[in-house]
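Example record

The entry below shows one chain as it appears in the dataset: sequence first, then structure tokens.
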Amino acid sequence: MNIELRPFSRSDFKELISWIRNPDELFIWSATTFTFPLDEIQLEKHFQDAQESDTRIAYTIVYSTTKEYIGHIELTRIDTEKKQALLMFWSIPIKED
């Protein structure tokens, strides 16, 4: 199974929001960056801040073959000279049967 990273976009907001079902999940995912309920207004501000930053970038994780959205990942504190970054806000949705 192969995966791809593609830039996180506004069209991904609703899917990501659907994964955060309660305040505890939001806190585990983002600590105090966002407040529950996670909404498009909060994500839009975060998205805009990332667009204006050269030290942060967010990606959507998709299956290569189906392009199904399967996760979210964000790199922050990107230091191109040291070639390092901090991995933050990663998530993969919990699928309930």
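Notes for this example: The helical segments are 13-19, 23-30, 40-51. The radius of gyration is 14 Å.
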